[in-house]
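We emphasize that the prediction below concerns an isolated chain of 175 residues; any contacts that depend on oligomerization or on bound cofactors are therefore not represented. The input was used exactly as deposited, without trimming of termini.
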Amino acid sequence: MKKLNLPLKNKDIRRLKVGESLLLSGKLYTARDAAHKILFNLLRSNKKLPLALKGATIYYTGPAPTPPRRAIGSCGPTTSARMDKFTPALLKAGVKAMIGKGRRSRAVKDAIKKYKAIYFLAPAGCGALLSEKITKRKPLLYKSLGPEAVYELEVKDFPVIVGIDSRAKDVFNRG
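Result of the prediction step, given as a token string:
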């Protein structure tokens, strides 16, 4: 299995093909519906974002409470389509990769192609196992949102599949 470090380089993104399995290591952000809406509204109002999105990877997850001696609780992927109305703006702002589960809209696929980004699928139903690939967790923004707050995670060999590559080829529409 191919291993890649985060943040991803443009050349790595271009080489990835739909359906390819990878192990990711490095830093990423968590963000779900509520955080996406806040960031989107800031972008729409031309206000400064409270974090740098250039080159960022966002994992659509809401971690469960952290058990003793662990970096994080169970944190499997959430349904990505719920973020679709916000995603093109975040890609335009510099996000390069997203991790979640499920299909994406035509608008998101078009934006992925336009901004040379990538969408990864994380194995659903495996939140406890995925949490073992997270070595550090740091709360960053919107702590009042609870599990929907934005966290910075450090991951080591986090398993994903290329769901939509930078040419907008989609694992769900391969014929």
